[in-house]
Amino acid sequence: MYEKEYNLINLLLNNNRYTTNAEIQRSLKISRRTVINYIKNINSTYKGLIASSEKGYLLDDKKRAISIVQKTEPIVSLEGYENRKIHILQKLVLNADIVNIDDLANELYISIYTLKKDISHLQVELKKHNLYIKTKNNNIYIIGKDKEKKKYVMDLLSKEIEEHHLDLKSLQGMFMYADIEKIHQIITACLDKHNFFIDDFSLFNYALHLAIYIETSIGSIKEIESIKHIDYSQYYSNQIQEIIYDIYETLTNEFEITLSLDQISEASILMSTRIVSKDYNQLSFNQLETILDVSTIQLVNQIVQLVHETYGINLKSDNFLVRFSFHIKNILIRSKNKIDIPTNQFITIKEDFPFLYFLAAYITSIIIKYTQSPLSEAEISYIALHLGVLMEERKNHNQNINCVIVIYDYYNLGKILFQKISNHIQNLYLLNIVSSYKQLTNYNDIDLIITTLPTDQSYGIPMINVNMIPNQSDIMKISSLVNDIKKNKKTKEIEYNIRRLFKKNLFNIKTDFNTRNEVIHSICDCMKTCGYVESDFKNTIFAREEIASSAYCNIAIPHPISANDDLIKESTISVIINNHSIEWGEDKIDYVFLLALKKEDKELFKDLFDIIIHLLLDETQIDFHNYQDYDSFINLIIKHCY
Predict the structure, then answer these.
(1) Residues in contact with 474: Cβ distance below 8 Å, sequence separation at least 6, in sequence order
(2) Are 428 and 413 in contact (CB under 8 A)?
(3) What is the model's pLDDT at position 167?
(4) Cα dist. 560→358, 421, 500 in Å?
(5) How far apart are the first and last CA of the chain?
(6) Is-contact 51 57, C-beta < 8 A?
(7) Could you tell me which of 420, 465, 457, 459 has the C-alpha nearest to residue 439?
(8) Cα–Cα distances in Å, from 68 out to 28, 34, 229, 610?
(9) Is residue 138 classed as helix, strand or coil in its secondary structure?
(10) Contact residues for 252 (Cβ-Cβ < 8 A; gap 6+)
(11) CA–CA distances in Å: residue 138 to residues 36, 98, 103, 554
(12) Packing angle of the helix pair 81-89, 101-108 (nearest 10 deg)
């Protein structure tokens, strides 16, 4: 409820008679139309709260109104451009609606003049993203490529996560019953008791997940009793089972909740793969088919597909999908049994993360369509929390350096060592603490080995020796090595993508083509034979050449006229280095790079082709004919990516 709607209800509470529209206008300093909109909005949320007649407005049930006011924290109204901008963008970018200007002004409770000023400001901002606002016949709509809209949505989400970092303190206001800091302490104490350790991000993730379980369990004992029992012991070692049972007992005693051991076990699956232990293994989404019912898995897959198709956002992360699938399972149980959960604690997430919240609302609409039952605002907010953690996880993962500590008497000493190092160096992710180099064979994604033992470089992994209690010199050495590893990881990523696109079986040298058509027919037929494209792909290449030649100086870059992913099975780039110049329309070219790129790869490799052009046109005037094999050619491209 917006602040002025809240004030309107208070105004009516203070009057024991009908209050006229004019009186409300004077008191709240708003227009007649705005009063009508406020009343309409209040009655749509709280059915029949305000009665209206020729005499004015009157509260139908004062006790009910007092209860609403006492339980409601008013949202600051959409005053100021920045607040209104979010609402406008949701309409135009996220909903992709054509909106009537009068209707939008009514929703925002502003004049047409103010709205048009806002639109002018927004046009300047959107132009930077190749998006444009147009008005026609008193309607407002946005134009631009679908790719640009999806990229803009991702930018909005990323900006929200950057500005409003998800941490325990900021999230506490969203929970009525669950004390997240207390849950955090309980987990840490139980892990310490059993001599286990978990990294900070996974600990935060687990505490948040348990908080959601606790919050949504209030008043739902019948639901818990009706849940089919699953034997989770088959998924855990004896040590892990003991930890989970300790957490379960401590939580139930602390919060006096109705959670079952099964629910705590369910919520702990990801935790069990993240704590430092001898039983390290990674649970994947595909493995959930043995635990969850088919309908839940199908619904999650549908959500992932539709979110990607609609907004270009990829939810495919095993960590997220495991967590999210169990959450969806519980939503379906609550929906089936008509179990309500608290709805008035989520003003913060709706205000601080409006686009994240909107994405969650879209996912909720998919679930509603599936269940044919309404879901509360709180359910949207819980989904938004899961999405927020995924965004944080992705942000962290892009910079994470996976490390293993090798140390004698490894449990407590290793934990202390890592904590001291991570206090000074960000983005270190602890895979495990081990007592022997031989144990490193259990991992295939180690970026860095930190050890107090004599180093052994035979493992081919960056390794650094430090003191048991690291000093300033140790910290500086690790920091320098971490920076080098980050640069190396980026190099490997670029090299991987270049080798992925430039297929060796499509690298042709010393060819003797004479015309453009010969080249296109030959390359496209080869791509079709290799299974990279469909037969009709060739037609899109010729259609593009008919509109405008793809030749530039002595190079041609033919590509489809439209982004039809159905014709491309796998992104590929074919290379032709001809023995002599080829007739290409009115030009003569020596090199051909034919592109068959799926949507997700087009933007990624835009810079790559700038490099190719640069290699051909800069002062060095590199001659590709001198690079007579695939590897030397690829190495040349990679070298000039920096």
Answers:
(1) 421, 466, 467
(2) no
(3) 66
(4) 34, 51, 19
(5) 52
(6) yes
(7) 459
(8) 20, 21, 39, 60
(9) coil
(10) 259
(11) 22, 10, 10, 50
(12) 130
* Cβ-based burial of 415 (10 A; exposed 0-12, middle 13-18, buried ≥19): buried
Q: Are strands 555-556 and 551-552 parallel, antiparallel or unpaired?
A: antiparallel
- Is-contact 112 105, C-beta < 8 A? yes
Q: Which helix (H) or strand (E) holds 384?
A: helix 377-397
The strand pair at 428-434 and 401-406 is best described as parallel
Structure-block tokens of residue 331: 């939503």
The token pair that represents 552 in the structure block = 């530039």
Answer whether 512's CB lies under 8 Å from 578's CB: yes
Helices marked H in 200-293 — which ranges? 200-217, 221-226, 238-255, 261-267, 269-274
**Which residues sit opposite 97 in a β-bridge?**
none
Cα–Cα distance measured from residue 21 to residue 280, given in angstroms and rounded to the nearest whole number: 67
3-state helix, strand, coil in the chain (%, to 5): 60, 15, 30
Query: Tokens for 166?
Result: 């998800």
Separation of alpha carbons 603 and 147, rounded Å: 9
d(CA 429, CA 201): 9
Whole-angstrom distance, CA of residue 627 vs CA of residue 642: 20
Tell me the β-bridge partners of 403.
Answer: 430, 448
How many helices and strands, by DSSP H and E, does the chain display? 27, 14
Which of 268, 267, 288, 378 has the alpha carbon at shortest distance from 331? 378
pLDDT in tens, 311-340: 778 888 777 888 888 889 888 888 887 776
Name the H helices within 19-100.
21-28, 32-45, 62-71, 81-89
| DSSP E strand stretches across 540-632 | 551-552, 555-556, 572-584, 587-596
**Residue 636: what are its φ and ψ, rounded to 5°?**
-65, -45
Where residue 278 falls among pLDDT bands split at 50, 70, 90? very low
Q: Half-sphere exposure of residue 468, counting CA atoms within 13 Å on the CB side? A: 7
Rounded to whole angstroms, how far apart are CA atoms 375 and 361?
A: 10
Sign of the CA dihedral running 465, 468, 473, 475: positive
Q: Tokens 């407002």 map to which residue?
A: 140
- The kind and range of the H/E element at 412 are helix 410-422
Q: Which residues contact 505 (CB under 8 A, 6 or more apart)?
A: 526, 530
Instruction: Write out the two tokens for 328.
Output: 């969806």
Question: What global pTM score does this model have?
Answer: 0.48
How far, CA to CA in Å, does 321 sit from each of 295, 360, 386? Answer: 15, 15, 10
C-alpha atoms less than 13 angstroms from C-alpha of 266 in its C-beta half-sphere: 24
d(Cα 626, Cα 110) in Å, to the nearest integer? 67
Question: Tokens at residue 499, please?
Answer: 């080798």
Residue 47: pLDDT band by 50, 70, 90 thresholds? Answer: confident
Residue partners of 603: CB distance under 8 A and separation at least 6: 147, 151
CB contact at 8 A, 208 and 389: yes
CB atoms within 10 A of CB 301: 13
Q: How confident is the model at residue 75 (pLDDT cuts 50, 70, 90)?
A: low
Burial 152-175 (b: 16+ CB within 10 A, else e): bbeebbeebbeebebebeebeebb
Which of 384-398, 444-458, 499-513 has the weakest average pLDDT?
384-398
Residue 13, pLDDT > 70, answer yes
